[in-house]
Write the structure tokens for this entry.
Amino acid sequence: MIEISEVTELTEQQAAELADILIRIVKSGASIGWLDTPDPAEARSYWQTVVRKSENVLLLATEDGHVIGTAYLELAQRENGRHRAEVNKVLVHPDQQGKGIGRMLMEVIEASARARGRTMLHLDTDQFDGSNAFYMRCGYTPAGTVPNWARSGQDGTLHGTTFYYKVLD
């Protein structure tokens, strides 16, 4: 059974499993902030930093006690933006993709945002990535694509990034 939960600290096992997911996703060519695949220590450190920041809400998808997916919210902190949050690093272990885990993470992240008084979510992704269709199926609206926004981890070329938003009920 898959469980989705918010966490405020990570065990060593959770940090290692999150690092493994991150490394695998970057190796697959996803544009999620790295050009070169991070080593395990760097990837674990990244997740420890995410969970320590008070403006972040980290979700873990687990099955049989193992992390198989993650997503996190970065809550806007400025007074005029406290109604919004950014959806970050919606990642599912490559061996677990296609099972609805990403959709479950998105549903819980939206509920977490609502519980914190957030009514506007935004996110971005490579304009040609398969995740674009996923986010649209989740009800996100494309706001536009900015050309040459980020470098590709595969070959270092610049690519466009599409920005999305969703107004929560």
User: Anything to note?
Assistant: The mean pLDDT is 96. Strands lie at 2-7, 56-63, 66-75, 84-92, 120-126, 141-151, 158-167.
